[in-house]
């Protein structure tokens, strides 16, 4: 498989104190990291894509570390998600290459995370935006952590590139009051409840 050709990364962090309600003493943190890489499959059909997933694993782990560190370290992370924007010379299946290296990188870094890492992908041109879903790291039914983080880059992905995204949060939405399973009441070992 070809080497990863990284053009750039984009790291973003939000510190949210309120959304019209009472201001929190400690802000809710949300962040994203994008890696803009060359798509080695752009412009052609390739039957076997899976070996490239193995090549992407070190990049996924490096991205997960940088993002978690920007949000206070792995112990602070309570929500996560992943996504990919495929440049116009690629296909959505090229974005699916990110499922294993992106998801498992975060789960490895965070230790005992049990919930599946939600994801999304699409084909788009430079400047395309993507809403990446977020759920609690240990139980997908924790409503307080249902969220989405918009990611994108003004000059990416170019036609022959992939924009690979990871997103993380440090807690529930700032004014969560929708009820349901609370994070402190998680009992399941399967990532659901």
Automatic annotation (TrEMBL):
InterPro entries per record: AA_synth_put, BB2672
- Classification via Gene3D superfamilies: BB2672
- Taxonomically, the superkingdom here is Bacteria
- Pfam families, alphabetized: AA_synth
**Official protein name in the record:** Amino acid synthesis family protein
Q: Which organism is it from?
A: Aliishimia ponticola
